[in-house]
Amino acid sequence: MVDYREMRRAMMRVNSRDTLPPVPDDWASLLTPEQVITVNQYANYGWDLWFIRRPRGDQPKVALKNVTTGECALIDTDGEFIQDHGLTLRP
After folding, report:
1. Where are the domains of the chain?
2. DSSP label at 59?
3. What is the dihedral of CA 24, 29, 31, 36, to 10 degrees?
4. What is the pLDDT of residues 27-62, one digit of tens each?
5. Please, which residues have CB within 8 angstroms of residue 54's CB and are 6 or more apart in sequence?
6. For residue 2, what pLDDT band results from cuts at 50, 70 and 90?
7. Distance between CA atoms of residues 87 and 91, nearest Å
């Protein structure tokens, strides 16, 4: 039996990736104050806000990318800068 609800949820996930910008204009309003501070601090060291993953019902996931080295890092909700995150990210 086909689970149409699960199919619809999967389609919604794909559609939101296609329609939502990786970094919205109002990005700071989506983050905790600690995350905003960390984004601004690391911007001084060559890190750009790469994307904000916005799962429904969960805290946004914030990713930074180093413009020189191509490395990526995550920022936890408490503003912690995490380079050893273990995530596989698409280019």
Report:
1. 22-82
2. P
3. 90
4. 999 899 999 999 999 999 999 999 998 878 888 889
5. 16, 20, 30, 60
6. low
7. 12
